[in-house]
Amino acid sequence: MLAIWLVLVVAFGSFAGKLGDVEENDPVSFLPGKAESVKALNAVRRFPSGEQTDAVIVYSRDGGLTPQDRAVIARDRLAINTDPPRGTSRVPPPILSRDGRAALLIAEIDTSGPTSDNTLTDATDALRDRVHDGVPAGLQVKVSGPAGFSTDAVSVFEQINGTLLLATATLVFLLLILIYRSPIFWAIPLFTVVFAEVIARGIGYWLAKAGVTINGQTSGILSVLVFGVGTDYALLLVARYREELRRHEDKHEAVAIALRRAGPAVLASGLTVIAALLCLSLAEVNGTAGLGPVAAIGVALAMIAMLTLLPALLAITGRRAFWPFVPQFGGSGTDETHGWWRRLGERIRVRPRRVWVATSVLLLVFCLGLTQMNSDLTSGNAFRDKVESVEGQELIAQSFPAGANAPTVVIVGTGGQANGTDPARVNAVMSALRAVPGVASVAPVERDSRIGVRLAVTLAADPYSETAFDAIPPLRAAAKTAGGPDVLIGGPTAEERDLRVSTARDNRVIVPLVLVVVFLILVLVLRAVLLPLLLMGTVILSYAAALGIGAFFFMQVFGFAGVDPGLPLFAFIFLVALGVDYNIFLMVRVREETHEHGTRTGMVRGLAVTGAVITSAGIVLAGTFSTLAVLPLVVLTEIGFTIAVGVLLDTFVVRSVLVPALVLDVGGRIWWPSSLARHTVPEQDEHDERDAATSPQLADRG
């Protein structure tokens, strides 16, 4: 088995490091082809000038531009036109603001050619190097515009793979050291997870080459998910292995029994997460749809590695790997009748209804944070730290219409006319657009007799703001009324607005689908209906509480501008699927205990024996997702924080208190309609079980 995994790592390892080379971090690549902004972009590419992305160079001085400043602007324009960066067109004369405080140089970068992958970032970086040299004191010079925003985003995403992988691996290493308190054993699960992660990234590279949209966010989540889920599955299997080592002298027999007892829970949990992730493939947003198969493959590899490679390594290393706390045959350790988790279960057993009602009320209080949610997070405020494109946008907004940084594109097609577009029709569209509130100016940019006329609409509002997004529907309505249904409106503002519309549609479609899929899997695994319904209810409540806590912290503590529109869907997928994971781990063991001890005693015994390992798994998973916060993007910070909080809530509140209280209150009916609901055995109290634990019959089990 080890040899097979070594071959796979060698085969895919060489491609794992290339995943970043095929990432698509341009927002346009996330949109479905039917989006109007994508159709507008395709039309723009047919014009002789091709697809041009503006790099807007802004020069600003608080007291007004001086003659020396104007000389610097002329010098920079001459230098760029004399030796333009690759793909950069000639820069026209500067545009001066009415207040005399600022001037703009606009350099168009051709991104439609065969070498367009790096042209935009290379040209923007070259422009920044040139205009930042020899700047007089007091003069602010920034390169912004769509080219600046794209370059800054790419720069951030390029840091993801190395930074995040190092942070995640380091955290998992430290947590494994603390959990196992062994200078040796940590290497076994970590070694197994690394194998799965390398292969997953290699497969991800080939998926991207095949046309699946993978961005830096997907790449980062993939690493976190494989490390977190893989380590969780390892903890569950190893905990059962240690338990069996105290009952069986032969390590091979202990591995076999542990795999037979814990393997089905790992398999069921993994398949649940995989099924939930595959639902993302139905998303309209290409970036979300790409996350589905990539993340599902990562989880599948982590699961398979823990069911094949990890048992092989455990059988090879045996007890000695746990040094200095070696589990001895016949020794004591975590069992069903002793320990902190057993005592917690007994306390809940006294008044279970009071416990689950109080716990539910607490979670509902956390849900009140949902009132703080808004969707004001945009490309313009998506960075945690200051970046040049955002600083440039702020300077532009002080002296020009804010939309000058990224004009909205309007395409007036020929309407089937052989001789081009009717001038009267174009004038009608321009007049209609000028009449829309929030429009600062409308100007023709390019005309082609075969394609039509391209117009540039400058909005008064920040082009990356909610106000600008809200202006797109009335602009489209006015343009189509005046010029016909074939008039297209695109550009950065329209693209982000279309992205939000598709994201909202994905939320409406995928969330209920995931609920149905996960519920059906729970029914099959637990062979019951009532229990899965209750478990789904607890997970949904936990999800809402986590989102509420996150929204409160984002708005009131961290000071973020808003919540990313895609956060509710990402948080839902991971928290529902992973939350159900822990419930599967717990309730599969409870079902096993119920056959011999009854539901209520089985619940307490199951909690006693799984409490420590599931809590450890929750801490590991929360920790791995929290590493997303090391990256300077607000959306990744929000995803990491929300999922980490949700996992901790699920671990310490839902799975430890709420679910046991519900099961203890409902009793054997929880297994309805399976035969186990009618299966009755004498329920033992804590005193009886501890007496039984010292009996010769139980001792023989060891």
Describe the structure.
Helix content is 63%, strand content 7%. It is of the alpha+beta class and 702 residues long. The strands form two sheets. A four-stranded antiparallel beta sheet has the order 2-3-1-4. Strands 6-7-5-8 form a four-stranded antiparallel beta sheet, sandwiched between helices. The protein has helices at residues 2-16, 36-46, 67-82, 116-131, 145-158, 160-180, 187-209, 216-245, 251-278, 286-317, 340-350, 352-367, 388-399, 423-434, 466-483, 492-526, 530-557, 567-597, 599-626, 634-666, 686-693, 696-701, and strands at residues 52-60, 95-96, 102-110, 140-144, 408-413, 439-448, 452-459, 488-490. A hairpin with a 3-residue loop joins strand 6 (439-448) and strand 7 (452-459).
Key words describing this protein structure:
702 residues; alpha+beta; four-stranded antiparallel β-sheet; 8 strands; disordered C terminus
Short structural description:
63% of the residues lie in helices and 7% in strands.
Rg calc: 30 Å
- Tally of individual helices: 22
**Main pleated-sheet profile:** 4 strands, antiparallel
Distance between the termini: 30 Å
Task: Briefly note the structural class of the backbone.
Answer: alpha+beta
* Shape call: elongated
Q: What number is the mean pLDDT?
A: 87
Strand content: 5-15%
Order of helices and strands: HHEHEEHEHHHHHHHHHEHEEHEHHHHHHH
Low-confidence stretches: 690-702
Order of strands in the sheet with the most strands? 2-3-1-4
Helix content: 55-70%
Number of strands: 8
